[in-house]
Amino acid sequence: MTRFSALGLLRAGLTGQKRWPRHWRDPEPAKAYDVVIIGGGGHGLATAYYLAKVHGVTSVAVLEKAWIGGGNTGRNTTIVRSNYRQPQLQRLLEFSLKTWETLSDDLNYNVMFSQRGAVFLGHSDADMTRLAERGDALRCAGIDAELMSRQEVGRLAPCLDLSPTARFPIHGGLIQKRGGTARHDAVAWGYARAADALGVDVIQNCEMTGFLMDGERVAGVKTSRGDIGAGRVGICVAGNSGVVAGLAGLKLPIESHLLQAFVSEPVKPMLDTVIMSQSIHAYISQSDKGEMVVGGDPDHYPTYSQRGSPHRIEDVAAQAISLIPAMSRLRMLRAWAGTTDMSFDGSPIIGPTPLDGLYLNGGWCYGGFKATPGSGRLYAHLLATGESHDIAAPFSLDRFARGATIDEAGAGPAPQDR
Prior knowledge:
Shape: globular
Mean pLDDT: 93
Largest sheet: 8 strands, mixed
Helix content: 25-40%
CATH class of the largest domain: Alpha Beta
Number of domains: 2
C-alpha cells in the first residue's frame, strides 16, 4: 500500500491530488479474454481477484458501465454478519465472514472492517423465544450467538429507549459479536487495486449492450467500446440482473426493488454496535465519521430508479427515533437508494444459466454487501472450473424449477417476521 507522510498528504491536497499514483490501470479492452465479468461492483471485482489469485486465471476483464463503486456497492448500510436462519445461508455467510476477518491483510488495503457486533432486538416474549431458537441453531452450526437480557442490551447501547412505555419496548436481544461493518468504497477500491496488480483489466465506462453468440453458446459480449470475445461470461450486476439476462433471452425469477437508507449529520460517538429490530425493519449504526446510518424496509414495488419514496424515509426515521429518541434532534445529511435483486425465495442465485458459457451471480435481496468476499470466492470457483463449489451448489438457478427453494424470508427483520 502506498504510504504518505503528513506533509505529503497536505501537498497532494493542495495540488488537487495530481501527484497521487493511480490505484489501478485504465486499460483499453482486449479483443478477447478467458473470462469477462459484467459488473464492476464488489462482487464482480472480488470474483476477478480470486480468479487470478486462487485459480491463476489472469486473462480476465471486469466491465463497468460507469465508475468503480458507483452502483450498489456504494449504496448500502455496510452491515456484515452471518446469523441467518437457513443452513445453506449460514454456510455461505459464515464462509464470507471468515474471509472478511483477514481481508485487509489479504488485499494489503484497509477495508475498515470493524467487528463491533450486530444485535437483533426483541420487543416481546414471542420475539425473545424466536431469538433463543435462532441462537441455538446458530451455535449448533458453529456460529457465535449470545442471548442478551434487557439490562445487557442497555449496557451495550445506553442510547436505546429501554423504558416500559417505549413504542417498541425492548425485552432483550441476540448478538453476534463477530458481526459489524466495513467501508463499502474501500472494499471496491481494495479489490480493484489487488485484481489489477494480478493482471486483471478493470475497464470503466464500458457498457455491455448485448451478447455474442456462437450457435447456442455465449462467446462474448457487445459493449459501448466494441465487441469482446470470452471463454466464459459472468453476470454480476446486482439490481440489473434481469435487464442483462434479458439481452440473452432469459427471464429470471427476480424483481428489482429499491432499498433506501440515510445518514444524519455527524455527532460524537453514541452507538458502538449495530442495532437491528426483530419486529420492525430498521437497522442503525454509527459511521467512523460520526454519522448515524439508518435503513429499513424496501419500497415494495418494481423499479430501476434510484430516487426512492419520501414516505419510506419518513417511516424509517420514525422507527429509528422510537428506538433512539436522541436521534430526533439530528438533521438528515443525505439519503440514497440501491436497486436490489429480490429473488422469489429471498436467497441468492450463483450458478450456470441455460445458455452454455453464461453464468449468473445475483438475487442477493438485502444481503449483497455482507456476502461480497465469500460470493467472489465461490463465483470465481464456478467461472474457473465450470463446476459449482459445494457451498454454492444449493443456490443454482434451476432450484426454482426443481422446487428446492431456500426460503429465508429476508433473514433479517422483514414483513414476514411481524
